[in-house]
Amino acid sequence: MTTPSTPAPAFRYAAVTLDCADTAELSRFYAEMFGLPVAYTSDDFVFLAGKDGGPGLGFSRVADHRRPTWPDPAEQKQAHIEVGVDDLEAAEAHLLALGATKPETQPQPDRWRVLLDPAGHPFCITTLV
Fold first, then answer.
1. What is the 3-state secondary structure (H, E, C) of 10-72?
2. How many other C-beta atoms lie within 10 A of the C-beta of residue 50?
3. Which long-range contacts (CB under 8 A, 24 or more apart) does 48-52 make?
């Protein structure tokens, strides 16, 4: 707990890390989507550097990773990223070509599209951000 005489430490958003079975495949997908370079790689982890010192994106190998089954609740979605785009149709086509898939369930397709990355994590593309 901070007090008036003790300033709160500074915090900044640095990254989010997604668990997956194949770090190379998933990091390639997101590197191409966002245009981010690989800053670090090992057998079990890949980190993409953020643009202009901004937040990065990490990928951690989990041996028994279970693919999310959204919208079926059998395996929870585990993570959810919102991605701003200028054109929903063009962005969706590009991401599908990179390896994303599109589930049948689309709660509000005129506002955003739900896609699944190659490891099954749902993410949304939207023109609202």
1. CCCCCEEEEEECCHHHHHHHHHHHHCCCEEEECCCEEEECCHHHCCEEEEEECCCCCCCCCCC
2. 17
3. 50/15
CB 49 within 8 A of CB 9: no
Does residue 108 contact residue 91 with C-beta atoms inside 8 Å?
no
Hey, what's the torsion of the CAs at 27, 77, 123, 59, to 10 degrees? -20
Picking from 79, 80, 85, 89, the residue whose alpha carbon sits closest to that of residue 128 is: 85
| Model pLDDT for residues 71-126, shown as the tens digit of each residue | 888 888 777 788 999 999 999 999 999 999 999 999 889 988 999 999 999 989 99
Tell me which amino acid residue 77 is.
K
pTM: 0.78
